[in-house]
Design brief:
Elements lengths: L9 H15 L4 H8 L2 E2 L1 H9 L12 E2 L13 E3 L2 E3 L3 E3 L14 H12 L4 E8 L17 H16 L4 E6 L34 H7 L8 H21 L4 E4 L5 H6 L14 H4 L1 H14 L5 E6 L14 H14 L3 E5 L15 H9 L2 E5 L4 E3 L9 E3 L3 H9 L5 E4 L1 H5 L3 H7 L16
Parallel strand pairs: 5-6, 5-14, 6-7, 7-8, 8-9, 9-10, 10-11, 11-14
Antiparallel strand pairs: 1-2, 3-4, 12-13
Helix pairs in contact: 4-5, 7-10, 10-11, 11-12
Amino acid sequence: MVASSASLGTFWTERIIFEIWTNFRLDTSVGVRQLYSGRLTRSCLNTISARSDFVRLSEMGALRVRSNHRLEPLLQSLSVRALTVANRFVMSPMTREKSPGRVPGPDVAQYYRRRAEGKVGLIVTEGVAIDDPAAVDYHNVPAMHGEDALAGWRHVVEQVHAAGGKIFPQLWHQGAMRDAAISPWPEIGPRRPSGVVGPFGKASLAAEVVARISPDTAPMTDSEIGDIIAAYGRSAKYAATAGFDGIAIHGGHGYLPDNFLWHGTNHRVDRWGGDHRGRATFVAELVKEIRSRVGKEMPILFRFSQWRMQDYASRLAETPTELEQLLTPIADAGVDIFDGSQRYFDTPMFEGSPLNLAGWAKKLTGKLGMTVGAVGLAETRRDHAPGASDATDNLDRLVERFERGEFDLVAVGRALLNDPDWLGKAIRGEPFLPFDAANLARLN
């Protein structure tokens, strides 16, 4: 490409610099510092041109670039174990149900590739069924086992890596929330620590679903618990073999790991239950199993939440001390990143402190914290009832909290599902696309 300052308007000048930054992930201190301070010297441009197709860009000389300074802290790289991500933005896991036969196809690969091309530092996939027939009820949720599914995931990983991205699968077992009646194996009941789905409160589930999943079942035996832990390990190993960069575990929202953590679904008095530390034993053991299968180099991310689908008003921990007793054994087992799932990233978790859930996880465990919750979205209500959503710019509040050291990574869900180029627009200072709820049901 040949360009000169005389032939380029301000927009295209900025666009070229943005493309250099995003396509080649300049993480050298000089490149980042000069780019985001609005200065690129001839020396820096020569360095860039030697690494890209913009072979004569240095002829433009020094340029003035109007960069989006406020996002600079979130555009720094981060390393954890053998992984380095280019920036702190993460695609949050969101159920898509677009994998017939539990096999992710080329459309799924392109869906994730578009987010990698949009320059998010890390992608966490939708929930993926582990190698247990009772893992997930939905027919079109992808699996992390079976030849065809693993071939599909290898293609997904190849596409994401080709676009310069990094990707984790989110290993998923629905546990007490599995609706056997709609699953491919209705004769297999849900796995529950104590045979109960838990007390229902402020739930968003349809009345007929609540009726189907409410009856008690037999509590899991020691043997069944061991089998499930082994299934997590197998699926993690399959993921590593497929080329994934790390492993994520869905441990919140009322699913199996959460069933062991929450007193409402764990009434056991053996080694798998009891007090807060005892209720963390199952998760600690499955993390140890995953670590033994994938080795020391792959990061492990654990999602947890105060709320769950049985009752959005329920709480996993009432105090920081209780949360510490739950999370410390999990951290010690080998988790590197805690994904604190909440509806709004700026909602304090405990009275007397502004920290959100990810902030508390980081403070209590010393591990990395990832926040999530309506980044880039405005909603009409602050509870978990359905409400209107629209695109908004709440990134100043996000950066402010990040710069205080509250968390290390930022997961973006619906905003990024709505627009694969959401982060690019944020960096360039362009308006966000209006939120289209129809995108929740399609591979945009």
